Structure formats: C-alpha cells, structure tokens
Amino acid sequence: MKRTRRLMSLLMSLVMMVSLLLATPLAAGATGEAEYAFTVTSNYQELSGNALDLTASSAMKYGKLPTTYTAGGKFDFEYSYSKLAYDSEKYEISKAELTIGDKTYTYTYGDAKATASVLMPYFGTSLITAAPSFYNYNFIDSTELSMSGKVYANVNFHITFAEKSGGGEEPDPEPEPPAAPLLKGIVSTTALPDSEGNTQFDFTEASDGSVCGEATIVMETTNAYTRILPVVDGDTTGIKLAYSYTQNTGAAYSAANQSQTTTVSLGNVQNTDGTVNDITMTATLDSDGDGTVDISQDYVVHVQQMTRLSGLKLTNHSDGSALTYTPVFAAGTTEYKASTLDHAVDVTFTNSDAGQTVYVNGEEIEGSTYAWELSEGENTLVFKAVKGDAFQTEYTLKVANAKNFDLHVSTDPSDAVFTLYDVLGNRIWPDENGAYQIMTLTDYKYNVSKYGYVGQTGTLNLAKAQDQSFTLEKAPESSPLPQLSSDYPSFRASADNNSVVSSKTVNNRDAIEVKWEQQIGDYVSPTSGCIPIIVDDKAYVMSGTTLYMYSTETGEMLKSAEMADEPGFNLMPATYADGMIFLPLNGVIQCMNAETLESLWVYHDPKPNYSHSSPIRYDDGYIYVGFIGTTSTHANFVCLSVTDEDPSNPLEEKVPTWINDTMGGFKWNGAWTNDNYVFVTNFYGQYFYCLDKQTGETVQQVSVQGSQNSCSASSIVYYGGRLYFTTSSHLYSFNLTEDGKLDLENTIEPLALGAQCTGTPVIYNNRFYIGLSSGKTFGVESYAILVGDIDPDTGALSGAYAVPTDGYVQTSGLLSNGYEEETGYVYVYFAANSGKGNIYMIKDKAGMTEADPESGLFYHPAHPQYTLGSVVADSKGNMYFKNDSAWQWCLTRSDLYIDKAEAEGGNAVIDGGSLQSGENHTIQVDPGTESITFRVTPSAGAEVILDGAYTKEKEIQLTDGEAEFKVRLEKGDNTKIYTFRVVSGPVLSNLQFSTSENKNIATFITPSPEFTPGVKTYTAGYSTTASKAYLVPTAKNSTDTVTCTAISGVASKSEGDVITGTSHWSGWTYYLVGFDAAATSARVNFTVTSEDGGQSSEYEVILYRGDTFPVITVDDGVISERTADSAKLNATVNKDGEIYYLIRSAEEAAPTAEEILAGDHKFAVAAGLNTADLTGLAAGKQKLYMALKDAAGETSVVYQVEIPTSRKLGDLNGDGKVTNADVSQLLDKVTAGASVELETGDLNGDGKITNADVSRLLDLVTAGQI
Question: Which residues cross the membrane (predicted)?
C-alpha cells in the first residue's frame, strides 16, 4: 500500500507539473514560434502482437493525434484512454506515464484521481493554469487525462498494458488501514459561537464516508467573509491545505498551498438564497519527508446562515412616544419586556440583511412596522427574520397593558432629594404638582440623598396609589478629614475654572531647570498617567489602577494606593476638596482621604459602558460630573453627596443625589456652579445647559454652534460676572440674571475662531487665551494660540493676534501674573499636541496687537511625545506637565543659567541657530576648522569656568574636526554645568531606530554605539523575524536636508538607490529599510547637506537581524586598574573573534578602521565579558580605538574609549613625583587661564582649578604631605 501511495503521489506530481508548464513563461532563449508535439504511445502491440489505434477514442479538441502546437499557445484536450479498442479479456491497463520535456510521472491504474489543487504546491512553477477556476481541468485518473493551459515542451502520454492475472495466484494482501485524521476541526472567528461560547468546531465522521470529516458553522447573513483556521489533531507539522468551493456568484474558487497555521479569509461563501454552501478542505502531508505526498484527506465545512434582526423600536400608538423595553436590544438576545398605558404599540423592525423578510406570529408582514393591538394584561409577540433555508432566530416580546396613578413622596429631612428611575435607568420626573406618574405592578428604582445623611436606594412596585415617605439617618461620626492647602486642586486652578496663578513661574527659556522628572506608567499607553494636582506640597497622579503621591520638592514617591478602577487614557486629574481626593475613573468615581489615601466610598455609574473623562466640580458638600455617551445614546450627569456614610466600609457604594440623563455625553466638559444652578456644555450635541442645582432638572437649554459629534470640550469659566466657554468653532460668553440663570435677552455675539478648539479659555485683565487647530485665524494659517479682548462693558469678543505652534494646542492655558507689578506683563503657558510635546509661552499685556518676540516655543521635553495634558503650577512657581511618554516633569526657575553664548570661526552655529534649553549643546562648524572662539554671558552674579579656566572667552582647539568642552557656572553654593560638543559640517541631532512607522506605538532599538552627532557609524540589531526597519534621522539645522541611500542588503534596492522618506501622521518622517532575505545585514548611508549644498557629512548605518553582526558593548568600567603605563580593558562582545585596537593620545587624529585592522594589537575574545591588559601607556589621557572581527571575517564598527590619566594629584609635569616644580607649573597655568586636568590640579576637590589649588599644593609640598 505504501508503494501504491508513492506511485499515486508521483502521478499527482506529474500532472501538477503539466499544469504548471501549461502557463509558464518562455525560458531564456525560447521563442514563441517553436513547435512541439503531443503524442500518445503504448506497449500493446509489443505485448499482444496486434496494433492499437490510439486516436480512436480521443476527444482531442484540436483534431486527431498526434498533433503539433506552438510553444505558449493554448493547449486544451481530454483523452479517454479507458475506451480504447483492445482485448480486455486478456489485457488490462496497469499504468500510464506522462512525460513533459525530460520529466516523467507514473500513474498506477486504479489509484485515486490526482487533482491539480493537491499537486500544485509540490511542483514549483513547472505546471500551472491560467486561473484557479481551470484547476479542475487538469487531472489524471484511471479513465481519463485532461490538460488545459499552455506548454513549452514535447508531451508524450504512454499507456502500459499487462496480461491479466490467472485465478490461481495468491490474493492481494490486505490494504493498510487509512491514515489517522490530520485535522481535528477548525476555528472560525466569523462563525457564531456554539452554545458554550466556543468558536472551535470539531470534525465528525461523515455519514456517507465520502470525506474524512465534516463540520457545520453558522454565520450571520451580513458576514462578507468566512475565516477558517485548521486545528491539527496532535502535534503534526508540515500539513498543507487546499480550499475549494463554488462562490455565490457561480464561479469555482480554490486556494492551494496554505499553511496549517494560516487563517484563510474566503469571500462570497454564503449563498444569497440562504441555502447551505460547502467548503472542501484537502489536507496533504509528506509524512516520511521523501518529497512525495503520501497522505491526502478531504474535509467538508458546511456553511449555514442565521437570520437576525439588527434593531427593534417600540412606540406608543396614540402619541408616537418612545416605549422603553428591557433589556437593550442586541441581535443575540431573544426575549424582551415592556409596559405601556396605551392600547396599541407600533413595533418597528430593522433587518440586518435586505434579503430577509419579517414574520410576526407566523405571518409575513409588509414593510418594517407592525401595528399591535393590545389586550388588557400581558401580550406576547413572536417574530423572526426569514431568508430561504437559513436558520431563523426567533424573538419574543411581552408587553403588559398597565394602568397608571400618581405617586406622592415626602422626605425627612424635607430638603432631601428623592429621584425615581425606570428599569433602564431613565429618570422619571415629577409633574408641576410634584407627583410622579407611574404604572401599576411595574418596577421603579428610587434614591434618597442629602449631604451629611446616609442615602437610601430601593425598588418600588405598587398595585395602587400610595403615598410614600422616606426618613434619612444622620451619617455616623468619622475621623476628621485633613484640611490641606492646595495650590492647584483640580483641572483648573480655582473655583471659577480659571487658571490664573500669582506665583512667579519661569519666564525665561534659558532659566528653565528640570527640578525633577518621573516616568509614571508605560509609554504611550492607558497607564501613561494624568495631569497632576498640587496639594500640601505634593503632586497626585493617577496611572493604571494606582494613585501616586509625590513630593513636589524632590519627585520622590511618598505614598500610593490601589484605586477601584483605572482612568484609562483619561487625562483629567483628580479633584481635591475638604480633605478628600475625588478620582475620575472608568465609569466610577472614588473618594479617598487626601492624607492617608484610604478609600472612603465608590460610585459606579448605572451606565457602566461609559468611561469618565470630565473634570469633577466640588461645591458645598456635593460633586458634579458628566460621563461619556455616544452620538445616539445619552450618558449621565450626576450629583453626589461627598458624605462618608459608612466609615467602616472603604468601598461603600455611593447613592447618587440626582442624575440627569437627557443631555447627551460629556468629554472634558467641566461644570460651574453658583448658589442655585449648574452650568455645563455637552460634547455630543450642540447645547449649553443650566440645571437646577437641587434636583438636576434642566432649567435652560441653549443651542450653540459646533460639530454635532464633538461640539464642546470646554469647562465653563466664570469671569467678571459672565460665563465663558469654547465650542469646536466659537468662543461664547453669556451674561447672568440677578437670580443666577442665563440672561437670554441680553446675549453676546460668539466669536468665530476660524479653526477647531477643544480647550478651556483662560481669562485675565479682559484678555482671553485659547489654543486652536490648523486653520486660518487672525493672520496665522496653521496651529496657533489665540489672544483676544473682552469689552468689559458689553462683553463683545474680538481677536488681537495669534502665535503659531507646531501642533494642535488642545490643552488649556496656565496664566501667571506674578511679574505684572514689576513689568506689566503676564505669561501664559500651553502644551502642544504634537510629536515633540513642546511647551509654548505667551508674553502679553493689555493693548498688544502682535506677539512679543519672547512669545513662542518655550521648552522642548527630553522625552517628546503627544500630549493633551495642560500645564499646572504651585505657589512657588514650579510648573508641572506630562505627555504620552508617561514622563512627568517639574520645571523651576534657576538663577544660574547661560544668558548668551557665541562662537566665532568656521561659520560656527550653536544649536542650529539659537541656544536651546538644557545642559547639552552642539556647535556646527565648517569642515577643516581648526579652532573656534567661544564666549559666554552668564546670568547675573554668576561666575564662569570655561573649559577649566576662569574666563568667559576662550579659543577651543578641534581634533579631527571635533571638540568637547564644559561651561561651569557658580553662584554661592549653586553650580550648573553645560556641555558643548563641536562637530564639523552638517550633522544629525538624533538618529532613531524603530520597529514601527507609528511614533506612538514604536519600540526603539538602541544603536551601538549610542548616538552622538560626531560619531558617523552605527549598528542596530533587530529580531531574527524582522523584515524591515524604520529609521528616523533629525538634522541639527532645520534648513539642512537628509538623503538616505541604499548600500547593500536592502530589499528591492540596488547600491546607490535613494530611499525616500515618508511623513507619518504621528509626527515624524521615517525611512523604511527592508531586509533582503538573502543578506545577513542591510547597510544604508544618511547624507546631511547644508542649505547651499556646499557642505555635507555622511552617517553609515548597519542593520542586522538576530546575532549576525559583531558588536562590542562599551559600558562604564570598560577601562580599569589604571597605572602609570598600563590598564585593563573590559569588553563585552556578542561573538567569538578578535578585538583589534590602537591607542592614540587625546590630541591625535582618530585612525581609520583599515589602520586598526592592519596593526598588530589584537587579542582573542569569546562571546561575553573579556579582559585584556593594555601596556606601554603614557601617563596622560589617551584614546583607545577598537573593532571586533568575528570568525566569519565580519568586522564591527570602530568604538572609541577614553583612557584616563594616570598622573597622581599634583603631578603637573608628569614625572611621577610632586615638587615645587609642579607648584610653579600649576601657578603658570592658572595665571595664563590654561586648561588643567581636574585629576591632577584640583587639590581642594571643588571641581575647578584656581589659585586656591596652587596655595593648597604649595602647603602640601612644603609639609611633605604629598
């Protein structure tokens, strides 16, 4: 049987090869005019002595056999060789051999039919057809050969006859048992789960034995694709799958050569008439690895449809009002209930498939609405969608025809708030007489609440009218809450929702100092943290399910607590009030003790699918907040008493004081309250609301202009007796009446912004400040911050000027008036939602009509990312902000900073044109520059140590076109150190290696060595499975251009081909480098060219996968045990090989890689940490240059390591002893302002070289103590 299966496999292979050759393009040298022959031969005459007409039974479509054909021409025929005229009593066909060119395939008579869909995966490009629909016309079996397509070689079909066996021979041996099933079943994510929720469907034995197994899946009629993943029975690997079926268009479809781990997505499977369609899966395996298939099994997946409805709407027939039913409709939920006072209900059905019809109580209805007359009591309606033979989902609706009555309620205390809700949570409002109209024997939920009391909640179900009374108990005594000072207690700085602070924030970008920074949570994830609030000299930040308390002075985490839920990507901070912290979580509000972080209570909104994303408003014992809804579903706006009603239960469930569910949804919409009313806008919808503060009832609803789906994301600001807010397109202002409502008679014209806006305005001195998206507004055709005026008498709004930004400023401003008395100016800070996450500052005063030169970019964070978080401040002037990198910063004002830096010589440019904030800076000079003159102007009262000398100006020498020096500023006990690196020619300021085109989700690869502008060669290792890399270079000078060129190993690119950069919406431009499958590494060059094209520099990048490229890891401690003439090198390598190295003085030029490899200095290394002795060293500073060459001859990049001086303290002349000669030399150097190594000249250890060190050295030498 094994031999038979192999012959069968061989025959299948031949047929497959024929089919492939039929459509294979001409080989090199072939011509379309070549003619080939098709012949049929046999051994019949040789065996029997009689001739045999091989053409007699041929169905050749091009005439009698043999025939000729043109190479590549159409070649279609069928040959029925079982009907040949031969002596079938004596002879039989034993095998057939098909030869195409020099390849022959043998088919044994009686074996199973060899199909193209089975054979094609195993025969490369030797045999294919023009389209999958022709696969069925390429086969060979015991009666017939069929070929369809094109062919480029001679074809011979040889039929072998044999004498029939006599009756006395031994019977054939018992056939081998069939192979065990290869497949257990399938997984289909597009199918409806079974009764246990599984999407795996196991095969069962076919009833007629025609296939190895069968399974049935049920799908909704709306699914366009059927997804199937085979489930292997056991751990067998190497199984190939072919799928075939007839599409609902009538076309045959096949998908061959599919891996057992591949999920296929098959289209047009479901028949339009609802009938079942079958997918045949053929699983094949070469079980012994000899290159031939010896197991082939067919399985059938029956695809049945299920009809469902996609919507259900009930309306009362008499007045057309909506009738609430439970539960909320879902296609898979089949039973519903409702109650109504009406005599009839209109039931409207929404079909998920246009081909379905709706049946009600067994009869088809016309249209989509059924008018249902109700009887007294309970009524039942059974309905379903019907489509041919599809499985039908049957639904049941029960409606009670109820009676109604008035419910009157009293409470003790009398001002406690009673609220009533139906079973879906919709609020039932009382009529003008205070009565609630409810239905008999129907469930209603009620809440009773008041600050200082224990709330009540329960269910009412009454058969007749009954007055109800509720008495609340005083809340038990609890531990006193801490009364803490708060600098910034919520989303906005004060109760008027206006963020104006009097502290002196840093207003000079050169004076910015990072007081501390902390990463709280994960990079670009829902745990990346929220805006902090500042209470009692502590910063409170939510991240994940944890509330953190940090010291504002040091950034040290002082305390943390587990929260009841997480805020997700909610950027709204907590709110502090009256000793409590209120946490806006996902559908949850939690209250904690602000000092201990112990939980006091938790509120779960009854609409749990709606997360929270708005500021929490506190006012006199209550908080007010809205939840997110959708464009079609209203969310809740709630009022909660903050009373700890059960001190023994930290997770007590808070009963809401009231809920208003009629206003849409809320996202960043913060409320403002006065004595009697609550004011808030909605995000979904276009309204501004005034609510009764006691009951939550809508008192006023005003239409505003803005997008329907994101109308307003602003909090309500109170300023000068008016309310202000933004919508997506306008700035609004409203007057208030004497009783505190909106004055709708004396309205103010809203200001059209000309761009999108999501921020809350900050207002001061009748000036407003808001951030805008890209648009055209007040002279700026881009992202901007708008400054405008308010007429204090009329409230008229007008724009003054706009300041451009690099991204949409979706945040709200922070205004400091701390300098106003001294300078007349205020300073306003905004964070831009761009990939850089920059902070912008506006310097402004009343009357200005154009931006001050100091307005604009203020701070660029060290960990750039997008941000929707606003800047906040404390009473000391420290500013706090965060971005999606999960880093939180505290910025403070330093009185020690570089006010001005200048460099001359070689067309020197500092930081691309202007000194940037931070401690690290780059100076670009022309190639060939030998030195520059550097001058620095410090902040008032600061002393300067420039490159080791007390001077504000010094000539800096370059080696190999580079230099590095430090500027030390001192004032009293304060010290600040800046590092300046001088590089030649245009350079990159950064080069990032990413795994994704999207900056927001990218994983970054650290290059070797780590990037610095002056180092021009890098390697970066990607995973062994990586197919591409994303490289992101940034030019130091924004006017320079960057070009990427392929060198080798880049997929689809030849040497010298340019790789074009692609701008991505996430905020960067990347260069996609694909790995060539045949190469171990990919190499590209980045060329940075100056604006005039006169200068350029190149960076070489080597990308590799896995561990294929040699790398040396250079960490701290790479040089140790330094003596006068030796040291130890400690190098970690990833591959066995040899490290080649050269040692040069610190002033000498760096050697080339060729020079290093040509030298004699080398030592063998093994993967891991290696130690080698370096001998013959000079006493002073030196540099070690090294490269790793692995066993395959691949060489790493060149690594540079500094070897520190060996001179001991005070040995200025390097003679190994300390004498008066050293004192004299130190004095000369200090007097001349020359550089001296701290390791030898800093005798008093203060980090600088001065006359104090000369005096100290003289004392030590005189005393013989050194």
Answer: none
Average of per-residue pLDDT across 1047-1068: 90
**Bridge partners, residue 910, by sequence:** 923
Alpha-carbon gap, residue 350 to 1022, rounded angstroms: 51
343-358 pLDDT, tens digit per residue, is 899 999 988 777 889 9
Are 905 and 956 within 8 A, CB to CB?
no
Helices 1220-1232, 1251-1263: axis angle to 10 degrees equals 180
Query: What does the alpha-carbon distance between residue 36 and residue 73 come to, in Å, rounded to a whole number?
Result: 10
**Gap between the Cα atoms of 993 and 1021, Å rounded:** 9
Question: What is the mean pLDDT of the segment spanning 936-949?
Answer: 89
What residue has token string 């010298």?
A: 1056
Among 453, 446, 450, 452, CA closest to 469: 446
**Which of 837, 991, 809 lies closest to 523, judged by CA?**
837
Handedness of CA 835, 841, 846, 850 (dihedral sign): negative
383-399 confidence digits (pLDDT tens): 998 988 888 889 999 99
Please state whether the peptide bond connecting residue 327 to the residue before it is cis, i.e. omega within 30 degrees of 0: yes
Give the chain's length: 1266
Entry pTM: 0.65
Confidence at residue 13, expressed as pLDDT on a 0 to 100 scale: 37
Say yes or no to pLDDT of 4 above 80.
no
Over residues 472-490, the mean pLDDT reads 95
Of the candidates 484, 564, 494, 491, the one whose C-alpha atom is nearest the C-alpha of residue 532 is 491
Q: How far apart are CA 109 and CA 730, in angstroms?
A: 84
The domain made up of 1112-1203 has a fold known as Immunoglobulin-like (2.60.40)
- CATH number of the domain at 988-1105, please? 2.60.40
The secondary structure element, H or E, covering residue 1101 is strand 1096-1105
Structure tokens that stand for 141 in this block: 């079996």
Element (H, E) at 1261: helix 1251-1263
What topology is assigned to 486-893 in CATH?
Methylamine Dehydrogenase; Chain H (2.130.10)
Kindly indicate the confidence band of residue 1238, based on its pLDDT and cuts at 50, 70 and 90: confident
In the chain, domain spans: 2-163, 183-305, 309-401, 404-474, 486-893, 898-984, 988-1105, 1112-1203, 1220-1263
CATH class of this structure's domain 404-474: mainly beta
The whole-angstrom separation of Cα 38 and Cα 157 is: 8
Q: State the architecture of 898-984 in CATH terms.
A: Sandwich (2.60)
CATH 1.10.1840.10 fits 309-401, yes or no: no
Place of tokens 């008499």: 318
| Mean pLDDT value of segment 296-303 | 92
Q: 988-1105 with 1112-1203: one CATH topology? A: yes
pLDDT in tens, 134-170: 556 667 777 777 766 666 677 788 888 888 876 445 5
